[in-house]
Amino acid sequence: MSLVSAASELIRLCWRAGLDEGQRALLETVLGASDPRAVLTRHVSHEPTGVAAIARVHSALESRARPGRATPQPYDSLAFSLVEAALNELNVIQPHVSAGRLDSSVAVLNTIKAGGKAGLTSAADCRTKAVLVEGIRADVRAAVVDGFAEAWRSHMPEKTGQRLALEMAALCVMEGRQHYFLSAEVRTALSRGSLDADQMLKVLLPAERDIRVAVIVEGTSRLESLGGLMDPACAAMGVSPGEPTAGWGRGTSDLEGLADLAAKAADTRREWSRDQAGGQVLLTLSVRARDLGGAALLGRRRASESLDQYVAGQRTSEIRLRPETLAYDPSSDRTLRLSVPALGTRPVRPLTTDWPPALRESLRTAHIARVIEAPTTAAGLCWAALEALDVKTKKGPDQKTGIEKVARALSLQAARQQIVDLHQRTRTAVAAEVAAAHAAHHDAQAKADRLEAVARKATGDHAATVARKATAARAAELDQRTALEDAMKAEAHCAALDAWTGVGNDGSLRKPDRWLDAFAPPADAESALQSAAEALDALTDFLSGETAARLRHWRAMLAAPASLSTWIESTADRFVKSLDWLYVIRNTALHDGRFESSTDLLDVHAGRALVDLTLEFLGNWYQHEAKAVPGLVALPSIKVIEHLAARQEEVLGKLRGGTRDGWHVTRLTSATSTGWDRHLG
Q1: What distances in angstroms separate CA 329 from CA 220, 248, 295, 468, 634, one per listed residue?
Q2: 187 and 290 in contact (C-beta within 8 Å)?
Q3: pTM of the model
Q4: Closest of 549, 569, 565, 546 to residue 557, by C-alpha
Q5: Of the candidates 654, 652, 680, 678, which has an alpha carbon nearest to the alpha carbon of residue 665?
Q6: Could you read off the pLDDT of 60-71 as tens digits, one per residue?
Q7: Which of 638, 637, 648, 657 is nearest to 675 (CA)?
């Protein structure tokens, strides 16, 4: 399903369920912020949330509580900064939830903060504090969930709804909700009619339940002592070829199909390599999860972790999981077949063919971090990919860390990314509204025509009843026709905006600056720009939900450049916190051996996206550096990062001066621009 079709369907379902604009914005924010396809600065992994912050404090304290460590991880200064960050987030959340709900949680964190870094020194102290924080995690979660429910029931300020929706999105990701199932189950629930707050919560975060998972272990014909290596609750079982299985209901045939597939793959491998035999075992286990997709991935994790314990003594052979996985939910008798990872079909192309040889180490590490399944390990490797660019945590001669510099550079690229993404979302939203209006009018017209045809043939008392229904249906059709006419006007406004921005047939925005011009044109703007600005005004009034809120937000920022500078600076601060946490993960995962945390699904998304965004601006730089001034040619990556960090500070200074004149968004991180030379030379 295309983006427009999916968005159009969601709009119609929201209409059918009678959602008001506030409820629709809440739902769109949760779905959008938890969507793995979202750009980094729109994904919840980039947002500071209380539920994630308190979980990270607990993870850090647990790690430092491990006895016998010569150098506990994370360092006390980093652990203390996590406490401060969590305290800050709880203070931000407090005005948006019921009075007093977070008082005890804030008090616990204040007590830990009062003890300073010295209170985080001994393993025993950290263990005690970890128990306290574990106790308040449930309180924070409950406050957020109840706050979201209240926002669903009643009209609340937009800022409150936005914050609580982000907290819910973070919970959905942290607790293993797979976006495909989350979106599908939301749509199914909306199709049934109105949803109260409790019903919506059950859709977003359904109760955990026992789900069966099956994977194929290659490289062995039997897993001995399996029951002693896994949690008894997993009910793990290695099934030999042809051996019967129980407890799979309608999934039994799929389970047999998975076993047959593995056997055929082993035969094919043997035929191809001639002398390489390939044994395999069908491993089944139970996990507790909120949906089939989350269960499948969690099951693979548990199976992989069990294989870790077979490594010793297997010097000359390798045991591993095949990508094919089966999940079965006994409560619904539904199954899910999937292959991990999901593979694409479209052609791929490099960002540039001019990568400096020195960047190959980072690219290689980034690639490994992308394909490895274990989320915490992958997140740790993401830091290693950045470290290969010479990004350091220690301060340099300029008293700035490599983290601070790359965060500043990232904030410029993020601003450009947000602007381009908003344009795409606006066009998608308009097209979706038009498609939804067309479909709604078509259905209303068909219903009115059908009832009128029945009314013409009806007699007696039945005729009067059908006539009333036909009259009401025709009135509804006329209302839908008016809505369709409004949507068609919006489509025309979008076309006028496209004419100014120069969008091509592929819908890509190649000149972001012209898109921004339409938000706040000068008084003496040319007629084409004035028309585009009027069209954007009309679209902002026409659209609803999250996209309309974003348009209003960016209009306000662009009208006050100082607030835009504040946004860029706060974005850089968020990147600093994300990079600090990525460094913590690298130390606890690769140095201390901790391979699981309650935020690891958020962390791996953030880590991969941070590396991707960094390589994006570096790739853009090296692609165009041949056209740069001599002093900016052949710079090592860390020097490019330092140059863009300095550029960010210069851009912020000018924005604080109250003007956007000269801001060159199209080439904001390019080697061929200063970021502030659009109208120069």
Answers
A1: 28, 9, 9, 47, 56
A2: no
A3: 0.92
A4: 565
A5: 678
A6: 999 999 888 888
A7: 648
